[in-house]
Amino acid sequence: MSDECLNVLQKKLIALYENDGDVFDENDFNKIVLDEKYLKRFLLRQNGDLEKAFEFVKETLIWRKEEKLSQMTDASLPRELYEIAGVCIHGTDFDGNAVLYLRCRYATYPKEAKTAITRSNYYLLHKAFEKGLYGGDKGWVMVLDFTGIKFTSFDPQMTYTVLKTLNRMPSGLSKLLLYNFPWYGKPFLQMLMSLVPKDWTHCGKIVNKDQILQIIPSENLPVFFENPSERHKNEIPSGAKYFDDMDKEEIELYGLKSEHRAIFKKYLTSFENI
C-alpha cells in the first residue's frame, strides 16, 4: 500500500467534506480524515483498495454522526459503568497491544438500554483501538470473559452486539480471546464467530487461564482474573458523572430516553452486589 494511495484517499474525503460540511461531524473529520495514521488503518482494513476504503470511511463516519458517537467523550458514560468495570481497558499483551475486557456476567440489559449499551461499547472499542494506535502504532485485543456465567443466565445478546460493531472498525484487532467459554455455550459458538468479519476470524481463540498467561503478562491482568468476586479499580475519567447527576441532554447523547431513566437506574443498581 503506497503513501500515494493514502494521499488520494485523504484528498477525496476532504473534497467530499468541503462540498458538504454536514456529511461528517467536524470532530471525526479532524480526528480521522486529517490524521494520516488513523486514516491508514481504514485503508489497511480494505487491503489498500482505494474505492472500498473511501466508501468504508464515508459510511462509517456518516453512521458515527447519526449515532452521535462523534460527540461522545469519556465523560459521556455514567460513572457507575466505570466503577462496575463490566467493560474496561487495562494494560497490554506481550506484544504491546491494548487490551479491552468484556465481562459477560454483566452482559444482560433491559431492551430500553440497548442503544445506550451498544453506543458505550462501540465507544470503548474505539478507545482501545486508539490506545493501541497511539501507543506505538500497535493493535488491540478483545477478551470476552465468560467466568461466572451460569447455564440459566447465559445471554449472548451483548456479545452479539459487540462482535457486530467490528464491521465498523479500522484495521488493528490483533486477538479475540474467549476466556472460560462454557461448554453449554458451544451451540452459540458458530453463530458468535459468524458475526466476526471474515478478515478477523483467524484472531478468534478459546483460552483458559494458562493459555491467556502466554498472551498477557500476569501483572497486566485485572484483579478479577485472580479473584472473580473482586471488582477491578477502573480509571475514572475526569468529568464523569453519576447517572443521577446527568441532565436530559447528557442522557440522550448517551442513548437513553428520559422516560427510561428509572429503568436504567434499576439496571445499574442491580450490579452493586455482583
Automatic annotation (TrEMBL):
It comes from the Eukaryota. GO terms for molecular function: phosphatidylinositol transfer activity. InterPro entries: CRAL-TRIO_dom, CRAL-TRIO_dom_sf, CRAL/TRIO_N_dom_sf, PI_Transfer_CRAL-TRIO. Residues 77-233 form the CRAL-TRIO domain. SMART domains: SEC14 (SM00516). This is Motile sperm domain-containing protein 2-like protein. The lineage of its organism: Eukaryota, Metazoa, Ecdysozoa, Arthropoda, Chelicerata.
